[in-house]
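Section 3.1: Structural characterization of target chains.
Under the original work plan, the team committed to producing a structural model for every single-chain target entering the pipeline before any wet-lab resources were allocated. The record below documents one such target. The sequence was received from the expression subgroup and is listed exactly as submitted; it comprises 335 residues.
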Amino acid sequence: MDQVLSDEKPGRGTVLTEKQLSRYADVLLWGLQTARTRKAAKNDLVLVRFDLQAVRLAEILYAKLLKTGAHPLLRLNPTASIEHDYYTMANDKQLVYIPPGEEALFAGLNGSISIYAPESLTHLGKIDPKRIGKAAVAKNKLRNMLDKREAQGKFSWTLCIFPTAELAKHARITQKSYSAQIVRACFLNKTSPVIEWQRIYKEAQLIKQWLNRMPIAYLQVESENVDLQISLGESRKWVGISGRNIPSFEIFVSPDWRGIRGTYYADQPSYRSGNYVKGVRLKFEKGRLTNIGAVNGQNFVRQQLRMDGGAGRLGEFSLTDKRFSRINTFMANTL
């Protein structure tokens, strides 16, 4: 007989309960559909990427996708060991190699759901950032294909974060507390979290319409460490809270990078590609970076912002309404 898992018991390998995992899957499906400009159809091809520690959520999501009539395709992300070996041992040809079938897959993909559940945040800390950047740039062709399909209404995506011991350790809280933050932020403690997301989505639409009606020439951000002017430019639109990130409460705009000037400072640390970065300070003049500094990870930050011609230009400015956001502690992840 198949094992029956209680709704109130923790899901396999996680501190989230089966009921919470099921609700999380429902929210992800809502996000995927909401992010789509055209209605999803039966026989849609949906890629689900997940880390090993999130396998139970992937299983639940797989079953729910089958019920919608979609064709779910599961793909396990590389483990920390595999990823480390790849960036350590791969030669230049292997770093930029695109496996057969990838372009065909992306050309027909209708949806993508990513579940981020890292077993390590620092395993790539000693890898040359140029190698990581080279592999990322090689995949631009695939990303561009999805961007085009998304603009045509044929593709949408969403992603979420899954509570792991590694994330909790670097956030300096317990895994139970980390999970509680996600449960509260995603409304997994509600009978129908999707209803809550629909409410926030509608309220955000009104805020975006209000912002888009305002004749804003530029925004000025000032604090003890920040003095930054953001020029919006013509025909810029505020977007966000679209289902593409779970949870996400940002309303953002793509400014005219040429009009960015002043100093930006990050008062919270960040982890990226295995690197711990803290105290980032950037100075802009006429949209271009003239000074890059960091208390920790300065070399990594400089290499990332010089990866290509656009890496050092401001591509997004966001606002978060404190009435929406429910995260109240450092989470060791920008999402």
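The first helix runs from residue 18 to 34.
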